[in-house]
Amino acid sequence: MTSNNSEQVARGPKTSGETVGVVFVGCGYAADFYGATMPNYPHIEVKGAFDVEEDRAATFVEEYGGRVFNDFDEVLADPGVAIVVNLTSVSKHYSVSKAALLAGKHVYSEKPLASSLPEATELVELARERGLLLSSAPSTIFGQAGQTLLRAVHDGLIGKPRLVHASLDMGALAFMPYTEWRSRRDVPWPYLDEVANGCTMEHAGYQLSWLVAMFGPVVRMAAHTSLQLGDKWPTRTQLAPDVSLGFLEFANGTVCRLSIGWVAPADLSLTVIGDKGILSVGDVWQASAPVMLRRNVRTSGKTNAYLAEPEQLPFVIPAAQHRYTDTHDLTVGAGVADMASAVLKGGQSFLSADFSLHVLDVTLRLAAGRGVMEDVTLPASDDEKLARPPVAADTAAR
Ligand SMILES: NC(=O)c1ccc[n+]([C@@H]2O[C@H](COP(=O)([O-])OP(=O)(O)OC[C@H]3O[C@@H](n4cnc5c(N)ncnc54)[C@H](O)[C@@H]3O)[C@@H](O)[C@H]2O)c1
Hints:
alpha/beta; Dihydrodipicolinate Reductase, domain 2; globular; 16 strands; Rossmann fold; binds nicotinamide-adenine-dinucleotide
C-alpha cells in the first residue's frame, strides 16, 4: 500500500534485499501490540529491542525474537538495522527519532510524531534531507475495516461525502480500574503518562488518519476542550483536558464533527454521510469491524425511511493471521510493514512524513482548543433556574 505518486526517496541503511532489519526502542505496554503482529510480515526481520529498563527489552525478545541491545548507540551503530520503531514514552519521541535519523535509520514512531510542531517539522526535514522514511502511528487504516471503508468512499458508493460523525470516546477513564491493566508481558498501562498527554494527543490520530486518507487535508477547523473529571483523580495528578470537540473541514469540502474523550461512554464510531447513502464503522480500533452501507432509497416514509436496511460490505483484504487481541483486534505492525515494503521497493510509505506531520498539526490544534468561545450574558431575571452559578447536580453526593 505504499504511495507510488510520491517522489522516490534515496535508500538509507542496507537491507538483505528480501528482508528489512527492525529494532524496537521502548518495550512497554504498547510494544506487545507490535511484537505479536510482526509474524504477519515475512519481509521484516526482528533484530531485537532496547529499553532503558533492561528487563523490558529482555522479556520482549524472549517473547518476540531478536536480541537485547545494551544501549541505544548499539542500535544506531548496527548496520543491519534499517528501521527504528520508536515505542518510547511520548516525551522521548523527538529525541529518540532525531538520534535515529541522524544515524541514518528510517524511523517509525508511535503517535504523536513529537510533542510540538517545531520538533516534528525538524524531524520531517531531517528525514527529507537524508533520504530517510519517517512515519507515525496510528496504522489502523491498514486493517480490514479501514481499507474497506477507504475503498468504498473512493469508489463512490455513497456519492459525494458531505458530513462525518467521528468519535473516539473511550469511556470515563477516571472510573475504570486503570491501575490494574496489564499487557501480555505484564507491563502496566502507563496511566500517568496517558492522562498527562490527554485524550486528544493520545487518540485524535485514530480518526484523523482515516479522515485525511479519505478526504485530503484539513483546511479549516474549530476546536474546544474541557477538563470535566479532574476532581476524580488523585490530587497532584498531571491532567490534560478529557473532553475535546472539533469541527473540521477537509480539502474536498467534506465536514466532520469529531468527539474525543475520557468522559462519555465508549463510542469509537465513524459515519460518513454522502449523497447516495451512508457508510459506517462501529469501532475504528477493531481491525475487523464490519463496514456497513445504507443506501438512499425513494420512499414515502418519514425520518430514516429514506435509508435502506444496512448491508455489510465484503472486506477488501483478508484478516491478518497474527493479531493482538485484548479489548480490540489490533494489527498494529502493518504500518511498520508498509514502511519496510517502501524500503525494499522504493517510494514513500503510506503514512508519509508529511501525512504524519499534518495529522499531528491538526491534533495539536484540537488539543489547544482555540475555537471561538463566546460569553453569554443574561439580563437580570427572577427565574432561579437562570441564577448563577448553577447548583452542580452531584454536589450533594460528593
Ligand atoms: N498504552 C497504550 O494503550 C498505547 C496504545 C497504542 C499506542 N501507544 C503509544 O505507544 C507509545 C508508548 O506507550 P506505552 O503505553 O507502551 O508506554 P510505556 O510507558 O508502557 O512504555 C514506554 C517504554 O519506553 C521506555 N523508554 C523511555 N525512554 C526511553 C529511551 N530513551 N530509550 C529506550 N526506551 C525508553 C520506557 O522504559 C518504557 O518501557 C506512546 O507513544 C503511546 O502513545 C500506547
